[in-house]
Every structure is written in C-alpha cells, then in structure tokens.
Design brief:
Length: 133
C-alpha cells in the first residue's frame, strides 16, 4: 500500500498556450520545458496540445506539493517524459524535489489528457510503500 500524500489537478485552454507560443516562441519553450521535453515537442507538426499538457501537468504537480509558484521553483524543476509504453514519468529537481522529499513523496503518479481545445492533468504524490498486514 502506498499512502497518498498530495493531489493536484489542472486544466488549461490550448488557445492560451498557442498564443504564448506564437508571441514568445523559443523563449517560452525554454522557460517551460526541459531540453528533452523540447526535443519531444519538436516531433509534433503542431506541438500545442503537447505543450499544454506539460503546462497542466506541472501546475498539477505544484498543487500536489502545495506551493504554487513561489520561491525558487522553476518550470524546468519538473520533467515529464514517456516510458516505453507511453506512460508519463515525472522527474523532479531543484526546489520542487526538495519540497516533495520534505512531504515524504517518493513517487508522482501523473495522468495527462487533451482535446483540441483543452489539456488537463492530475498528479498524485505517494509515499513509501507499506506492507499490507
């Protein structure tokens, strides 16, 4: 059994992300995505839904750890890449990782979904696995 320590959810309009990409392009991408996430986004003809999904996921993670955008937290403290089956895997760094450790979060379970107009994500922070008695 893995205890749930925190949960966060976010919803973003893809038009908002598309506008940011149009207005700020590479500068926006470098601020929000890690190098590997940007490489992944570049594989799409239209990366809007991918970027919107990552935006929603990172917002959900910050809600999960209870901080929001404050202190030394950076977008690139959180990296979300697919495993071999396509499941999003979260890697935390910097202040975000420090806060998760402080809360006792060992694993982040993440789900991302999007339509043409919206992207949503749910992040669940779980603690160490405990044996079932």
């Amino acid at each position: 059994m893995m205890p749930i320590i925190g949960h966060g959810i976010d919803l973003v309009e893809c038009d908002r992300i598309e506008d940011m990409l149009r207005r700020h392009g590479d500068r926006f991408m470098a601020r929000v995505l890690t190098n590997q996430e940007r490489d992944r986004a570049a594989q799409f003809k239209n990366p809007v839904q991918f970027v919107a999904g990552r935006w929603a996921a990172k917002e959900a993670i910050l809600k999960m750890i209870g901080t929001g955008w404050r202190g030394q937290i950076a977008w690139t403290d959180m990296e979300i890449l697919p495993d071999d089956l396509g499941r999003p895997v979260v890697k935390l760094g910097g202040e975000t990782a420090r806060r998760a450790r402080e809360l006792g979060i060992e694993t982040v379970l993440l789900s991302i979904s999007h339509t043409r107009g919206h992207a949503t994500a749910s992040a669940i922070g779980v603690g160490p696995q405990k044996p079932i008695s």
